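Quick entry between incubations.
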Amino acid sequence: MNDETLDKLLYNYFGYEQFREGQREIIEDLLKGNDVLGILPTGTGKSMCYQLPSLLLDGTVIVVSPLISLMVDQVKQLKQQGMKRVVAVNSFLNPQQKQQVYTHIDQYKLVYCSPEMLQNDQFLQVLKEKVSVSLLVVDEAHCISQWGHEFRTDYLKLDETLKELKEPTVLALSATAPVHVQDDIVKQMDRPDMRKHIYPMDRENIAFTVEHVAGMEEKIQRLAAILNTHSVPTMIYFSSRQWTEKAAYELNQRVEGVKVAYYHGGMDQMDRLLIQQQFMNNQLDVICCTSAFGMGVNKGNIRLVVHAHIPSQVESFLQEIGRAGRDGFQSVSLTLYSPGDGEIPKRFIETELPTEEMVSNAMRYLQSLSNKGMYIPAQTEDIEETLQLSEVQWRFLSYQFEKHGLIKGRNILIHQGWKEAYYSILSFIQERTKIKQNKLAELLHWVHSEKCLRSTLYSSFQASLKKPTGFCCDRCDFRFDLWTTSNTDKRSELLNWEEELQKIFLQGGSE
Amino acid sequence: MFNTLLLHSIQQLQGERSASAILHMLTGKKSSQTFQDVYAYHLSSFFGIHRTITRDELMFELKKLKALQYISTRERALQLTESGLKELNKAPIEHTPLVWLNGTAYQHMDQQFWGRLVVFVQTASNIASGQHQFIPVDDRKEVLDWVKVKYRHEQSNLNEYLQHLYSEVYDLLKGMPEWVAEFTTYRLSAYHRYGMSKDQLAMRYNLSVHDVTITLQAVIHYLLQRVLDNQSAYPYLFQMCEDLQVTYPLTHSAQKTFEWIEKGYTLETIARIRKLKMSTIQDHIVEIALVNPRFCIDEYVTKEAAQNISHTANTLNTNRLKTIRDELNGDYSYFEIRLVLAASQGVSNHERRNT
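Done. Structure below.
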């Protein structure tokens, strides 16, 4: 495959004139049949690295992604671009829909699925019988490493899945993986010859600023003041749904001529879609959102990303600010911090994994089931209800129990090793919690840093930095009053309903 | 508006039902108890009109009404207070778009019809103005599949189609109060903008999000009622709901039972063939009696029993089965009582609608 052919394909299918950094190198390696580990910063087109090869490779490309909403968005976008032979298989499909997909599985070039789906016997059987998998893509590959900032136990079984699927080529992708996580990915996938394509993640057109304020009211005041002088496309992250709603309401009241809306996972599907598309379509200027927003938001001109609440780790922070300035123009990351803000992510970390009591309750529960000669209930919701566990907690525990040989499928295996397993699981939980606490401490340290924010932020990921194209950070050269922005275009106001209806239906001869 | 609906429902339920009855009515729970309740208390028009509301959300709204002292509870049953009644009389259902609602008739088809209309308009508007990239605002597969087929069919004279569809939609919106026509128009998505979310509509019209949900539902029912009653006047909109109609709005399982009955089988035989409990089959019979005014109950209840039961229910002015059964010294089964009530409620309902 020569350069020209790839360029032509890129243009014809995706409408891009040229590849972005890293894409061509990764694609060429894959087409030669080499396994690849790709670390590419958010917003640089990771998905192109497998979407384009899927057009060239015989057989099927499987993309494993832990984020169902992202998966669904990508499939939608691809279909919109005219790629029809693509499908997402996940737990949202009803049995009929699933069956339909399975029947026609060989007609798809690109199949997205969740890691859980790959553990589903029926799905695996369908893949083995009906298609030949040419490439298996592991998106968010850091989830395979327990040293990563997110850890998904389902990912640990991927090496077995690879063997079942007759060892296809592997592409592991992540936006944020420090060196020890990279090594762990290679080890866990059991592909020692993986080619590493690592690209620096610092964004030279984003300036950083952290402001310390007294509390939420002051944050809203500050936001209103900034938006009054800089009415630019903006995302504001909050830790709770209630705050997104309240802030959107307040900002709409206090900022003239700027349209603000909120977005969170509690809204119904159509409304989420409407708000997201209004923002992409520049009908909205500001979105107050939780971390649920942003997956697949491909908007080039986001100028300002605000953290009204900090996330629990630098990796999430980098991913979220990475949505700013994808068009390359000067953009800003603002963090508003007030005393005690670290408590919210701290509580989140503490409740994410099961407590000591939950582990021992769960083990006692299994033993009593086994004594009665019963199996583990098929409905995981029932178990979660009985044991008062979250979905994540039970998934974590059942993987741990299986790993320690206490259960297999729905069978409970009683033997001597239960006590050791108990202590081993507890110490593993402590270790994971410790890692997470350190990650939070790292972010809190950054928030309070007196040195250059840019170099502090990226220091654990890379040795050197690109020179910023504009401002660096508030410790070096940035102040809001120095930042000149072109205000958003005046948008046409809504017409009265009769004229608006005519416009919708292209009637009235004015079009 | 949602408050009006709640107050109205609580009034209709005569202090004989708890919050669950309202939840099941709103979410359109397919159980014979719910079916019978909504007919018995003349609430069938609100069946299934807010299918996504959760118990917590409903309890939150009821708590607010309680705090205003519009309602009270006695042994979990909800009751309207004096001031609640006053509040309801200030703004009765008849003065709101909610009067258009007809849940039992349209709840099985309303969202499909609306999804088709919205996505087709969005598609045609975009493509006819030369814009081929847009995200359909309703991503249900059934809706998209329908629009795809329809679009392919109309592709060649899209402009003409849009023009006809426009005049039908305009004509129907014109018949609504000004603000509702505007509300509906702004909800639509087209080539130049995506439609407003429920929250945005709520803010603009000073409503709650629940108000928006049920107003939108009322608009859809208004459109369906006008279109289905005047098919020849609205041929283009009729095409969007023609295939969604059913003879009687029965649950799938009750429909099956009805087919066996029409073939002349006894209830016992049907229960055996379908491997269902006798009580389930009886539930189906009650359901059929509610929606099908031509269904004859004589085969399952004697004329005399029917008379006694109706008479007692009317004298006591109640729909409580136990009260009726006790008054009649336990002479009749609950099935017989339910069936007699269902038949009279179903028929009376039918007669009322035709006048």
